[in-house]
Amino acid sequence: MPTPPIDPTTTSAWQALTQHETALSPDLRAWFAADPDRATRLTLPLADLTVDLSKNLVTDETIALLARLADEVHLAERYEAMLAGERINVTEDRAVLHTALRRPADVEPPLVVDGQQVDDDVQAVLAEVFAFAEKVRAGEWTGVTGEAVRTVVNIGIGGSDLGPVMVYEALEPYVADDLEVRFVSNIDPTDLAQKTKGLDPTTTLFIVASKTFTTLETLTNARLARQWLWDSLAAAGHLEDTDEARREAVAKHFVAVSTALDKVADFGIDPANAFGFWDWVGGRYSVDSAIGTSLAIAVGPDAFGDLLAGFHAVDEHTRTTPVERNVPFLMGLLNVWYTNFLGAHTHAVLPYAQQLHRFPAYLQQLTMESNGKSVRWDGTPVTTQTGEVFWGEPGTNGQHAFYQLIHQGTRLIPADFIAVANPAYPLRDGDTDVHALFLANFFAQTKALAFGKTADEVRAEGTPEHIVPARVFPGNRPTTSVLAPALTPSVVGQLIALYEHITFAQGIVWGIDSFDQWGVELGKKLALEITPAVTGDAQALAAQDPSTRGLIERYLELRD
Asked: What CA–CA distance (Å, rounded) separates 501 from 329?
């Protein structure tokens, strides 16, 4: 049986935090005025990142109590247990070793789990992925006509899609000029149709990413892609109407990321062109595994290696830094503070970097699939609220959409602002540095959220009295600012690992298993059971509840 989680509400730190919150009257204006060193003291380094926590609704006492809570729930010890390969994913009886994916090849001591040399396994697969990526980038991997690959289509879903597409967009300036990667995930046939539109089948390579090679959406899209390939090659006169020719086409235009080599072979993919990973890699933690093959092709092994180094730098910071200065742990504990003591329900992530426009979507899976749980890792009910709804859009787009609610609404919405000092495209509008103009908004928004605008300040501007209330900004809206020198591969890895460990810290406090995802299973199972009803089976239709039956009947009427 797993070690029972510690109920955080029974700890002395939780009781002290409860009393502290009752007595606390957040006033960021007054706090900053009374404490000139507040910003310096609460701005922390994390590898290449500068993280300013000073505009959060915390005092030194709050931080000390949160650190005490971390100690009382054994946060650091649980992190060490994860790094060592203990089976902390208890409902699936698995180790959780995504951190092993980015350990340097020569790190000591070696990681051995259940007698297996994990470092050797990881480096062997990474070498295979890198060798394949180099062949594609050099034009040595060719299709049925001898043409080099120009477009890679990654077929996956969940972590097999969200991670690769997010990092691909973030590292777009690093992508080889003669390569493009497209990503197919949705089982809606529109997705596959749009992503293959305009492609030359002779220069297209498909990567099918599915650990078990049984994922419904991924395998359906893979079969659709295979048919598209056959039809397109035949239409262009490059494919004979024989099974052998079709098998050869698949072998040259498809590879897999999977460990189910028999199923890979049945599909027509040469098992030698299948790159594996392990059951201790969860999908939402897998972008730095072979799931990132499309990225290794796009940006090259060197850049992918830098991405891994960025991950590892944050892993090491988290392992070696006391909780009072440990950025991922502190940010996770702050989320606990807002969720469990100040009543926040959502958390905004607002990247002031267009290349990170998919980062909030990536974090939705990472955080909400991990911590959207109502039972603890021993099967008992949770004793607190868990999880937040993560959401966001890149600035300044969000400013013209939902910032109104954050600034003047009635809900507390903690927000993380992320920016880079040096843009990939340093454009100018006449004499104006557009990136400087852009980041002026980044700085202004956190200032406005923190300090607001009083009624007297509004009046001093000559505002008519009846308009004054509408123009008051209450302030005391908490934000964390993360500033990076540039959006390099290493920085992208650092940002991902930061939020991985934020998520971990919250899960440990709440006593939940952040590494399973049973909540996604029921809907998938029911979809398989309902499919016959949707495709005309009257008996299956009659077995549905009245609402579902009515909806299916109306769908069938409309489809006809």
From this structure: 7
Q: Are residues 484 and 538 both part of a single domain?
A: no
For residue 177, give the 3-state DSSP assignment: coil
What gap in Å lies between CA 527 and CA 411, rounded to an integer?
A: 36
The rounded percent of the chain whose pLDDT value lies above 90 is 94
Q: Which residues contact 412 (CB under 8 A, 6 or more apart)?
A: 338, 342, 343, 344, 477, 478
226 and 364 inside one domain: no
What is the chain's Cα-based Rg?
A: 26
Q: What is the pLDDT of residue 1?
A: 62
pLDDT at 263: 93
**Mean per-residue pLDDT for 451-460?**
97
- Contact 366/284 with Cβ under 8 angstroms? yes
Query: Quick one: 362 and 491 in the same domain?
Result: yes
Side chain identity, residue 72: E
Q: How confident is the model at residue 76 (pLDDT cuts 50, 70, 90)?
A: very high
* Statement to judge: residues 325 and 364 lie in one domain: yes
The tokens describing 185, both together, are 């995930």
* Residue 149 Cα distances to 137, 143, 227, 254, angstroms: 8, 7, 19, 11
Give the whole-angstrom CA distance, residue 329 versus residue 336. Answer: 11
CATH code, domain with 462 = 3.40.50.10490
Domain presence at residue 93: no
Question: Which residue range(s) make up the domain with 41?
Answer: 33-73+321-510
- Both 121 and 248 in one domain: the answer is yes
The whole-number pLDDT of residue 259 equals: 85
465 contact partners, CB below 8 Å, separation of at least 6: 459
What is the reported pLDDT for 340?
A: 98
Q: Are residues 533 and 499 in the same domain?
A: no
What is the spatial distance between Cα 243 and Cα 433, in angstroms, rounded to a whole number?
59
Q: Is the distance from CB of 443 to CB of 429 less than 8 angstroms? A: no
Q: What is the mean pLDDT of residues 228-244?
A: 96
Count CB atoms within 10 A of the CB of residue 122.
24
Helix ranges, 417-488 (H): 434-451, 455-460, 468-471
Sheet containing strand 274-275, strands side by side: 180-184, 151-155, 204-209, 254-257, 274-275
504: left (phi over 0), alpha (psi -120 to 50) or beta: alpha
CB–CB of 326/370 below 8 Å? Answer: no
Catalytic residues: 369, 400, 524
